[in-house]
């Protein structure tokens, strides 16, 4: 099962990079500390009642049976399920769903990193 790692917020006071932040957040939120693969997508997300943000999606690799057994969620924050590609936007609404689909397209096509604005391709 191919995964796309989506992290939380980087610790800018500590000089943390987006890649390091994604790895740390993945370890904290699901209990898997994995080396991240290539950058799949960068999304500029305009703020509605908050400042804009930049979201980075990395290739999380292929999870084996032992990886699935090792997942430990912060259940107060997260839930998870395996979802077919065609059902993703029903579970991940708006820009988030489009962002993950764009990252999966990059993986499937072997294309360059996708540049997005609110989950839509630009350029």
Order of helices and strands: EHEEHHHEE
Domain module count: 1
Q: What is the terminal-to-terminal distance?
A: 30 Å
Mean pLDDT: 87
Helix content, binned percent: 25-40%
**Beta-strand fraction estimate:** 15-25%
Give me the secondary-structure category.
alpha+beta
- Kindly identify the CATH topology: Nucleoside Triphosphate Pyrophosphohydrolase
Gyration radius over CA: 14 Å
Strand tally: 5
**Biggest β-sheet: count, sense, barrel?**
5 strands, mixed
The CATH class is identified as Alpha Beta
Count of alpha and pi helical runs: 4
Low-pLDDT residue spans: 1-6
Task: Specify the CATH architecture.
Answer: Alpha-Beta Complex
List keywords for this structure.
123 residues; 5-stranded mixed beta sheet; disordered N terminus; Nucleoside Triphosphate Pyrophosphohydrolase
Explain this structure.
This protein is of the alpha+beta class and 123 residues long. The protein has one domain (2-121): Nucleoside Triphosphate Pyrophosphohydrolase. 32% of the residues lie in helices and 23% in strands. It contains 4 helices and 5 strands. It has a 5-stranded mixed β-sheet, sandwiched between helices. A hairpin with a 2-residue loop joins strand 4 (114-117) and strand 5. The chain is globular. The protein starts with a strand and ends with a strand. The model is unreliable at 1-6 (pLDDT under 50).
Could you give a quick summary of the protein structure above?
The chain contains four helices and five strands.
